TrEMBL record:
Organism this protein belongs to: Chengkuizengella marina
InterPro entries in UniProt: Phage/GTA_portal (IPR006944)
Stated name of the protein: Phage portal protein
Highest taxon of the lineage: Bacteria
Length: 419
C-alpha cells in the first residue's frame, strides 16, 4: 500500500467536518505553494546542500527518557526499532534523514507524516508508531474547524489532496521569520531573491567562458583563393587545404600560387580565477559550507565551525520537532524525547576517537563493545562491561576519603610525638 493510500484511508472521514481557511494575526491567507527549483540548477548550490544532507544522514535518532535525577535511560520502543534501520518500507534511516534535509533546503519547509496504530490497554489508549514518511506537496493550505483546531491540506503533483490534523505532522522550518507558520519568505516560499542574483552572475560568467572557448577553437584563419573558381572547385580547394592542415607535422603549410592564408589572432577574454572563486565562495557561504568542507580537506577547527554554524541548528530542530509531535504533554513531562545523536559527525578522525576513548573509557562511561564500535571493530560476547581507572573516585566519596587520610596522618604524628 502506497503512502497516499495510507493517508487517504486514515483521514478520509475527517473530510466531512466543516473547515474554513485559517485566520492569522497578520491578516495573511495561509495558502502556500512549494516552489524553489530555480536555484537548484546551479551545481554549486547542489554541492553545498548535498554536503549538508550527507553529513546529517550520519545522525543516529533515538527515543530516550530522562529520569527525575537527570540521568538518561534507554527505552525499548517501536520508535527505536524504526529509527535504527528503516523508518518506512522505502527508505533506510540514512535515506530518510537525507531526504528531510534536502526538502528543508529546497522548500524551506519539511513535512514528515507518522503513521500509527491506537493500542488500548489498562492505562488507557496509546499510539504505537509504525512508519515515518517525508512529504513533498506542491501546495499547502491551512484550515480550521468550528472550534479553531488547525488542519493542514496537502495537494500533491498527481492531483490528490488530503486534509490532516496539523498536530499529527512533524514540521521543520528554515528561516522561520516573517510568516507566522511557514519557513521562508512572507508567502511561505523559499526566499531565494538574494542568492539568485549571485547565481545569475555566475551563470553569465560560465556562459562567457563557454563562448570564449568555442571562439578560440573555431575560425583560425582565412584562405584567399586568387583565381576565379566555381563553387564546386572552391569546395575542393577548401578540402585540400584542410587535408594539408591535418597531415602537417612541421607547422608549415605548403601553398601554391593560387592561394593566400591570413591568420586570425584569436584573443578571447576570460574571467580571472579570483573572480570565479569569489562567486563560488559567496554561494557556499550562503549555505554555511566552506571549500575545505566540500573537498574533504578540512582541519578539526574548520569542521567544528561547520558543525556549530550549519549542522547543529538542524540537529536541534530535528529533535525538538519529532519530540513535540510524537509525544503527548504527559509523556514529555516524564522525560520522553527524540534525540539525533551526532557521534559519527564529531569523532571523524582517529585522534578524536582516541581522545574520546581515553576520557570516557577510563571513567567507565563506555563498554568494551562501545570502544570497539568507536574504532570500527565488531563486538564480542561479554563485551558489554564497563571498566574504569582507579585514578578516579566518586565525588560523594572524595571528602570522606580525604578525611580518613588526614586522620591516619594525624594518628601517626601523635605517636611520633609521644615517643
Amino acid at each position: 500500500m502506497g503512502l497516499l493510500q495510507v493517508i487517504k484511508n486514515k483521514f478520509t472521514p475527517q473530510q466531512s467536518r466543516v473547515k474554513q481557511v485559517a485566520k492569522f494575526l497578520d491578516g495573511s491567507i495561509p495558502i502556500f505553494s512549494q516552489f524553489g527549483e530555480d536555484v537548484y540548477a546551479s551545481d554549486v548550490v547542489q554541492t553545498a546542500i548535498n554536503c549538508i544532507a550527507t553529513e546529517c544522514s550520519k545522525l543516529q535518532p533515538k527515543h530516550i527518557r530522562i529520569d527525575p535525577n537527570g540521568m538518561q535511560k534507554n527505552v525499548k520502543s517501536s520508535l527505536n526499532r524504526l529509527f535504527k534501520f528503516a523508518p518506512n518500507e522505502h527508505m533506510t534511516t540514512k535515506d530518510f534523514i537525507e531526504k528531510i534535509v534536502w526538502l528543508l533546503h529546497m522548500n524551506y519547509n519539511a513535512f514528515i507524516y507518522p503513521t500509527y496504530d491506537i493500542i488500548n490497554g489498562p492505562d488507557g489508549s496509546r499510539r504505537e508508531y509504525t512508519s515515518f514518511y517525508p512529504l513533498n506537496p506542491k501546495q499547502v493550505d491551512y484550515l480550521q474547524d468550528e472550534s479553531g483546531k488547525l488542519f493542514i491540506k496537502f495537494m500533491f503533483a498527481n492531483g490528490q489532496d488530503f486534509t490532516i490534523d496539523y498536530s499529527d505532522i512533524i514540521h521543520l522550518r528554515k528561516k522561520f521569520s516573517v510568516n507566522e507558520i511557514m519557513g521562508g519568505g512572507a508567502h511561505g516560499q523559499p526566499d531565494n531573491e538574494a542568492i539568485l542574483k549571485v547565481l545569475q552572475i555566475n551563470d553569465t560568467v560560465l556562459q562567457g567562458l563557454d563562448k570564449a572557448i568555442k571562439t578560440s577553437l573555431s575560425v583560425r584563419g582565412i584562405l584567399k583563393i586568387n583565381t576565379m573558381l566555381e563553387d564546386k572547385k572552391q569546395e575542393e580547394e577548401r578540402k585540400r587545404f584542410e587535408e594539408a592542415i591535418k597531415n602537417n607535422e612541421t607547422g608549415i603549410l605548403p601553398m601554391d600560387l593560387k592561394g593566400d592564408y591570413f591568420d586570425i589572432k584569436s584573443d578571447p577574454k576570460v574571467i580571472d580565477k579570483d573572480t570565479l572563486e569569489f562567486l563560488d565562495n559567496k554561494v557556499l557561504r550562503y549555505y554555511g559550507v566552506s571549500v575545505p568542507i566540500i573537498s574533504g580537506d578540512f582541519t578539526d577547527e574548520q569542521y567544528q565551525a561547520f558543525y556549530e554554524k550549519t549542522l547543529e541548528p538542524i540537529i536541534i530542530s530535528l529533535g525538538q520537532a519529532f519530540s513535540k509531535t510524537i509525544f503527548t504533554k504527559g509523556q514529555l513531562d516524564h522525560g520522553n524525547e527524540i534525540v539525533f545523536y551526532p557521534q559519527r559527525l564529531l569523532f571523524t578522525n582517529t585522534k578524536n576517537r582516541i581522545a574520546v576513548a581515553d576520557i570516557l573509557g577510563n571513567r567507565g562511561a563506555l563498554t568494551n563493545n562501545d570502544l570497539l564500535q568507536l574504532f570500527g571493530y565488531p563486538p564480542y560476547d561479554g563485551g558489554d562491561v564497563r571498566n574504569m581507572s582507579l585514578n578516579y573516585i566518586d565525588v560523594n566519596l572524595a571528602g570522606e576519603y580525604q578525611m580518613k587520610r588526614a586522620g591516619t596522618k594525624s594518628e601517626k604524628g601523635g605517636e611520633s610525638n609521644d615517643k
